[in-house]
Design a protein that fits this description.
The structure holds 2 protein chains of 2 kinds. Chain A is built from 18 helices and 26 strands. In chain A, strand 25 and strand 26 form a beta hairpin. Chain B is globular, with a radius of gyration of 21 Å. Chain B contains 14 helices and no strands. In chain B, helix 4 runs antiparallel to helix 6. The chains are: A alpha+beta, B mainly alpha. Chains A and B meet through helix 2, strand 8, strand 11, strand 24 and helix 17 of A and helix 6, helix 7, helix 8, helix 12 and helix 13 of B. The complex binds protoporphyrin IX containing FE. Protoporphyrin IX containing FE (HEM) sits at the interface of chains A and B.
Chain lengths: ~675, ~375
């Protein structure tokens, strides 16, 4: 390249205009990266932007702006620009720092905006000494220049201001170097040079392709390490683009135990992993605890507590059949591992998560009317949580699972292991939703006086069973009309009605009963009719309950209000089951919890540089902004003429004040 | 240095000795709650506050007032949180929420007084503005101290310095902004800017009240693990010195723009003064914001394993920093002055506010603890 072209490039790159343009582009690019969510699965983007924009944005790298090559290019240019700027400016800066400008001419001093003429009667040497002492006492460093018929006191203070420029901009350079070192650039180079390619998680489960495996020597990386309790791992995974790479680690990390502690409000308080780390080279082991905010550094790699997950807990499940043919085959207990799937009837059962405890606010929510005054009162005083009626209770374990049909449609469920008390009654809760965006809707099945759910299912199996229908209706009618004979038309009529009600209910719960009423009863009598039907159902359910007990050789129950409530709750639950959508209710009867810890593991050789650069930057900014560079000149002529002049590289108000201060002080010395 | 120490009077030494005594007391009494980094913070805060008080004398009186108010509050509790409801003095003056409530009210009054002073050219009204602002700061700061104490009364594991959620940092913002403003008021011997600067503080106060009333945000929450870091304790206050200073620069910028158009020009300080305050505020803000961002990076390095990962909050902090960096470049190396810089300072507050609030409301990221 001809010299003049090089020169032009140098001029451009080291110019402030270029730097400012770069910074503007950098800001805009950064903003885009905060508006478009980064590193989402590509499908999300396709849904969001549509088929036209999606590939365009992809080619622009908008789904990973900060790793895009053009973004890295901006940073590299910024690095070049700032470096050149320093190279260009520093000779002059250093000269300025050193020089006292003892050769300043009178004519040029007279050009200063801040100057004053005096006349002194003192001998020049005395005045020079006094002025020099004064300036020194004010923090100036003074040099004297004797010249023809005059002497010049050249003083300066705050030269560190210029040093600040070097420190701050040098700091930025160091930070950029460190940041680029830790960024995506080295990995990209490695991928290109060693012909490595990311793979998919699905493929990893089978085998690790050699092309996706990085050796221990990777310069800088940031990966995840998933270790279940009681297991060990020496492989980290790095997410790259839409795929994954496997990174060999120089050690093996075994997780002994992962523990979580909570505050009484249920908020997490501490996540800690107890690990044993074994150096693969020497075979030596060390025991450590890794916590959030307390990472572990080992062999140049740093390991952080990132999150946690289920590590494959095994669950004991007891299915209670809910489909029409409830009497048919009794189902056997099954065991399932979190994170796995198995066939379940004609569907697939996927156990997605398990939590051994859940802290919930179990206070009965009553809407209390609040006046402005009472609100004010409650906002005064201490900032502790006021008694707002919230009661945080551990409601015990629960698990979530999906049931997927042959067409791939899935419903998601959340079942609690222990009965949960609501409004004074105990229920087994099972939540259901058809899409992850919904909240769970809960099926509340009442437990009996011994806290067991079995009686509910026994009652349900009897009440909905077609062959039992006549007997239930008969028992109900008999107990309603104890004095009636078997042929009493009142009695047979009631049996008939009860039977028909039961068969309606067995079709679709209260919905079917409601539909029947709507169709057959005039509008103004519907409420009364509904009342009658509900009474019949309650009565039948009560008798069915007794019959079940009778068959199990248990004594008849005495009628009490809580028992009646139990029956009503049971009916509601049975009715809701028609919309539950699962062939069985999976009762969690036991579990063995295995947690897994997710660590983040990094090698970032640039970190030290970034922090060093930061230190330089802070010092530099301080010097540039808060150390004021000042120069003062006192030209004392043998004739008694005195010229005082001051200059500063920043024109601020306090410079004006300083000039007045020093001028008046000098006047006093004359 | 020697010159500086020679200027100190008896009062200054007394103040220093008091601080030292407090520091020693805190060390002896609370050492078991602190790790080595917190001890370092305590050790360095004694000279830091000493220097602040020596260099800016009115600060000493403020510190004394805060000490007395907080001791009254802490003493009245007698270690029992429930006394906040029972003891009259606690409920209506010395409990943290009440102190902060007083702070809010006093800030509103101060703002009103400043406006009266500006419009009526009344020295007395403007002077009352200053006095009210001092009182508000004393109340609010003591409120934070008492809140700190209350958090330990809730439970030793809940206790933490109140700089961890949006409610607490808003109180901090009000305190720091008005303190920086009072400093400039003293340096430039003018009270006219108070009317404008205190507008931001009033707005922040309004937000605080809304936040406490409708969202119950004033309740002390225990710290989730990511926030249990000593870096947080210096990162957050440093950030708020930055935000506060930028807010002042913007409001002075508004005053500048008005005065440049002749509105209130006869009542406001000269354009040169306004321009100078704007520069100094941005310089201070920039220095602290630089520091805060770096502290944030140190913290992130420890909590998340990377000092920088282009999380929206981080990215916006960078944008704010670049923006004010550009402002300083234009002013200092290009010698730019006038309405353009004032406009830029006003817009700068927009960018800063987005980084501070907007990111939490509109973008998702790791800094989710500040969610509205
Ligand atoms: C990330 C990029 C940069 C940042 C954050 C930055 C920041 C700063 C800051 C805060 C100042 C202080 C203003 C002062 O008191 O002088 C400054 C001054 C300055 N900057 Fe930059 N700067 C950057 C890049 C550059 C580049 C690339 C150049 C070269 C063209 C440059 C040239 C200067 C000059 C000449 C000064 C004035 C120094 C003096 O006269 O004391 N800056 N910079």
């Amino acid at each position: 390249m001809p010299n003049s072209t090089l020169r032009a490039w140098y001029e451009l790159l080291s110019s402030m205009r270029f730097a400012v343009s770069l910074l503007t582009v950098l800001s805009i690019a950064s903003i885009i990266g905060t508006v478009v969510k980064q590193h989402e699965p590509f499908n999300n983007y396709l849904n969001q932007f549509g088929p036209f924009w999606f590939p365009l944005f992809e080619s622009l790298g908008l789904y990973g702006v900060y790793n895009a090559s053009w973004f890295l290019a901006i940073l590299v240019f910024l690095l070049a620009s700032t470096t050149l700027c320093i190279i260009r400016q520093s000779p002059q800066m250093l000269r300025e720092m050193k020089s006292f400008r003892t050769h300043a001419r009178e004519a040029s001093l007279r050009q200063f905006a801040h100057k004053e003429n005096f006349l002194s009667a003192q001998p020049p040497a005395t005045l020079a000494a006094a002025a020099s002492a004064y300036l020194t006492s004010q923090g100036f460093r003074v040099k004297e220049d004797k010249r023809d018929g005059a002497r010049l006191l050249a003083a300066k203070a705050g030269s560190a201001n210029r040093l600040g420029y070097l420190l701050a901009h040098g700091g930025i350079v160091v930070i950029l170097v460190g940041g680029l070192l830790d960024g995506n650039l080295p990995l990209r180079l490695l991928l290109a040079l060693e012909d490595k390619h990311p793979t998919t998680f699905a493929q990893l489960r089978e085998a690790i392709p050699a092309q996706a495996r990085l050796s221990e020597g990777t310069l800088s990386f940031r990966g995840n390490l998933f270790v279940p309790e009681g297991e060990r791992s020496s492989l980290a995974t790095l997410n790259v683009d839409d795929g994954v790479l496997v990174q060999d680690l120089p050690f093996e990390l075994a997780l002994e135990k992962f523990s979580i502690e909570h505050y009484t409000t249920g908020a997490p308080k501490r996540f800690a992993s107890e690990v044993i780390i074994t150096d693969r080279a020497s075979g030596q082991s060390e025991r450590h605890t890794i916590e959030v905010n307390h990472p572990l550094t080992f062999k140049g790699l740093t390991i952080y507590q990132s999150s946690f997950d289920d590590g494959g807990s095994s669950l004991e499940l007891l299915p209670h059949r809910l489909d029409a043919n409830t009497q048919a085959t009794p189902v056997k207990a099954l065991s399932a591992t979190v994170g796995t799937q198995q066939p379940f009837g004609d569907q697939t059962l996927e156990i997605t998560s398990f939590r051994s405890f859940n802290i919930e606010n179990m206070a009965d929510t009553q809407s209390t009317s609040q006046t402005i005054f009472s609100t004010l009162q409650s906002r005064m005083g201490s900032a502790a949580r006021h008694d707002d009626g919230k009661k945080f209770v551990n409601v015990g374990p629960n698990f979530q699972f999906k049931l997927r049909d042959a067409a791939g449609q899935a419903r998601e469920y959340q079942n609690y292991m222990l009965p949960i008390t609501q409004e004074g009654r105990a229920f087994m809760l099972s939540g259901m939703r058809t899409s992850p965006n919904e909240n769970f809707r809960y099926l509340r099945m009442p437990v009996d006086e011994d806290g067991r759910i079995e009686s509910f299912f026994a009652l349900r199996n009897t009440l909905l069973n077609e062959s039992a229908r006549h007997e239930i209706a008969r028992r109900f009618a008999k107990s309603s009309l104890p004095k009636a004979t078997a042929t009493d038309p009142m009695l047979t009529g009631l049996i008939d009605t009860a039977e028909r009600t039961l068969s309606l209910f067995a079709k679709d719960g209260f919905t079917a009963v409601g539909g029947f009423i709507e169709k057959n009863v005039p509008a103004d009598e519907r409420e009364k009719a509904a009342d009658v039907f509900v009474k019949i159902l309650n009565g039948c359910a009560w008798e069915a309950l007794q019959w079940v007990r009778e068959k199990a050789a248990q004594p008849r129950l005495e009628f009490t209000e809580p028992r009646a409530q139990y029956v009503r709750d049971a009916l509601w639950a049975m009715s809701d089951i028609f919309h539950y959508g699962a062939p069985a209710y999976l009762q969690l009867t036991g579990f063995e919890e295995v947690r897994a810890s997710v660590f983040q593991i990094t090698r970032s050789p640039g970190q030290a540089w970034v922090f060093l650069g930061s230190l330089l930057l802070v010092a530099g900014v301080y010097f540039m902004l808060f150390v004021r560079e000042r120069r003062a000149f006192v030209l004392i002529k043998d004739s008694g003429d005195v010229l005082f002049a001051m200059s500063a590289n920043r024109k601020t108000l306090d410079f004006e004040n300083a000039f007045v201060l020093h001028r008046d002080a000098l006047k006093g010395l004359l | 240095m020697k010159r500086f120490l020679h200027t100190l009077r008896t009062m200054d030494w007394l103040y220093g000795a008091g601080l030292l005594a407090l520091g020693v007391f805190a060390w002896v009494r609370y050492d078991h709650h602190m790790d080595i980094f917190e001890e370092a913070i305590l050790l360095s805060s004694v000279p830091a506050f000493a220097w602040l008080g020596w260099w800016w004398k009115p600060f000493q009186k403020l510190a004394a007032a805060v000490l007395l108010l907080s001791l009254a509050g802490i003493g009245l509790y007698e270690g029992d949180l429930a006394r906040a409801e029972k003891v009259f003095l606690l409920k209506y003056i010395f409990s943290s929420q009440t102190l902060i409530g007083w702070m809010c009210m006093l800030f509103f009054f101060a703002n009103g007084a400043y406006w009266l002073g500006l419009l009526r050219k009344s020295e007395f009204a403007a002077g009352s503005g200053t006095a009210l602002t001092w009182c508000a700061i004393a109340m609010g700061w003591a409120g934070m101290m008492v809140r700190w104490h209350e958090s330990y009364l809730i439970g030793a594991d809940v206790g933490h310095i109140p700089v961890s959620n949006l409610y607490e940092v808003f109180v901090l913002f009000c305190l720091i902004t008005s303190l920086i403003y009072l400093y400039y008021e003293g340096v430039y011997r003018t009270r006219q800017m108070g009317a404008f600067v205190m507008l931001v503080v009033s707005a922040a106060t309004g937000f605080l009240l809304w936040y406490a009333f409708t969202r119950g945000a004033h309740e002390i929450q225990p710290l989730i693990p990511a926030l249990q870091s000593y870096w947080m304790k210096i990162h957050v206050p440093a950030n708020f010195v930055g935000y506060g200073a930028f807010a002042i620069a913007a409001m002075v910028g508004v005053a500048y723009l008005l005065a440049a158009r002749g509105v209130l020009a006869s009542r406001l300080p000269s354009l040169t003064v306004l321009d100078d305050v704007m520069y100094r505020a941005i310089a201070i803000g920039f220095a602290f914001f630089t520091l805060a961002t770096i502290l944030g990076a140190l913290w992130a390095a420890e909590a998340w394993g990377t000092y920088w990962q282009w999380d929206p909050k981080e990215t916006w902090a960078l944008i704010v920093w670049l923006n004010y960096g550009a402002w300083l470049h234009m002013r200092l190396t290009k010698g730019l002055r006038g309405p353009l810089l004032a406009w830029w300072a006003v817009m700068g507050l927009g960018v800063t506010t987005f980084a501070f609030l907007g990111v939490n409301m509109f973008l998702s990221g790791l800094h989710s603890y500040g969610a509205l």
